[in-house]
Amino acid sequence: MEVELEEFLNLAQALDDVLLEDETGQQVAEDLRELQRMTQAVILKGKDTARSFRQAADTLDELWKNAKKVHAFGTSISIAGGLLTTVGGVATMMSAGAATPLLMLGMGAGLAGGGTNVLTSFIEASMNSKKIKERKKTGWRLKIA
Predict the structure, then answer these.
(1) Which one, 10, 16, 30, 135, has least CB within 10 Å?
(2) Better-scored residue on pLDDT, 141 or 17
(3) Among 61, 111, 41, 47, which Cα is nearest to 81's?
């Protein structure tokens, strides 16, 4: 599409040279130059918009990767907490309460892992929403002056 637009601009320049010979031609040539200017402005705005969308997509991809890493960490902590809770519960019963700290540690780890996952999901959703709203606000409308 960019090649077609460049061909159009070159054709417009050639027409401009031919039309400068009489008064009506001069007006048409001025209109043609204005059309060229507006076309070039649209091309530049389109390129800027595309670049902006690519940057937003890269940011969202990076956010997604980081969120998945944190989510995996939170899940691992939750699993470890579940295992510690189970082992701590059995050990507490067998030791008449002496292993209660192990039980509490397991419960705490499970809660911490779950909390990490919930918080990560909330932050990811909020950042995604913020980026999408920014693009809707600034990038989806081209205004040529």
Answers:
(1) 10
(2) 17
(3) 111
